[in-house]
Amino acid sequence: MVFDFKRTRVIAQHSIKEQIKTSAFWTSALWPITSMLLLVSYVVIKYGDSDVGIAFASKFLPQIMAPLLTVMLIIPYMGMIAASIVEDKTSKLSELLIAQTGFKAQVLGKFYATLLLVCGNLLSTFVVLLWVDKYLHSQIIRNLIHYYAGWQVINLTMSILLTVGFTLVLSIWRSANYRDEEQLSKTTWDSVVVAMVIVVFATSLIKSNVANNLFFQYISMIIPGIGDIFIGSTISVKWYMAVVMYGIHIVILSLSLKYVIRYYSVHILSKH
Questions:
Q1: Residues 193/75, Cβ–Cβ less than 8 Å
Q2: Are the C-beta atoms of residues 177 and 96 closer than 8 Å to each other?
Q3: Of 229, 233, 258, nearest to 244 (Cα)?
């Protein structure tokens, strides 16, 4: 199957238009909630000079609030790509696109569309935080900017890769047991949202706690210099751990996605 960039681009453009229409409600519903979280955090830190306020600023914010904010921003798009891959199999437009470009091009088109939408949403959030910091000069805003600039990019990539791969595997498994497309779509939506939330929170908590992990402290005493890589500084923890931990996972997920698409194209679509 030859990759067709032009037709994949057409699929991506169509997916972006459809997903923007679908996400209009979700975006308008989530922004007040995220804004309220920012406001509450700002008030607590601004007027809480006690130890509780300091602990809130240094612990709760980077470990809980930033992952929660990211989850709220990307859930609509993760759910949409999952639902569209399953539901569009029955649409006439999807059947035409599959006939012309194949299932691989359709999945890649939707993948690129969702990636652009999510990155655009996070970028707009980042710009808003910079604008707010210009007038408020709040440490909470700087902490969020620092968090987004680093690990949220990795979390976002992992979430999208896992979501697409998980959706395809689940679709194949469920299609062999269920003929009801509505039930299949609902099951996929619920499962993908749960999986994505787990990944985002897990990676965020791993990042925030790795410097205090006893395993890495023990290894640093055995192997000279490894402490400087893993627990010596925040920058080293961020990027070296990203290469070690997430590089392996991305390779595995990419290979899994490749073989899942190939299996689906050859063994499933060829029978219909």
A1: yes
A2: no
A3: 229
Between CA 185 and CA 105 the distance in angstroms is 21
Rounded Cα distance, 114 and 162, in Å:
13
- Cα→Cα distances 167→21, 60, 260, Å: 22, 32, 10
Residue range 44-55: mean pLDDT, rounded: 61
Judge contact between 180 and 236, C-beta under 8 A: no
Residue 164 CB neighbours (<10 A): 25
The count of structural domains within the chain is: 1
Domain that holds residue 236: 5-271
The residue type of 110 is: K
Alpha-carbon dihedral 28, 171, 8, 163, rounded to 10 degrees:
50
Q: Token digits for 203?
A: 């990676």
Asked if residues 77 and 119 have their Cβ atoms less than 8 Å apart, the reply is no
Q: What is the pLDDT of residues 207-263, one digit of tens each?
A: 544 444 444 444 444 444 433 443 333 334 444 554 554 455 445 545 555 555 555
Structure tokens at 199: 């990944």
Do 163 and 196 meet the contact criterion of CB atoms below 8 Å apart?
yes
How big is the chain, counted in residues? Answer: 272
Q: How far apart are CA 171 and CA 229, in angstroms?
A: 41
The rounded distance, in Å, linking the Cα atoms of 219 and 1 is 47
pLDDT score recorded for residue 13: 73
Count of alpha carbons within 13 Å of 261, Cβ hemisphere only? 20
CA 235-238-242 angle, to 5 degrees, is 140
The answer to whether the beta carbons of residues 166 and 192 sit under 8 Å apart is yes
Q: Which residue has the higher pLDDT, 153 or 116?
A: 116
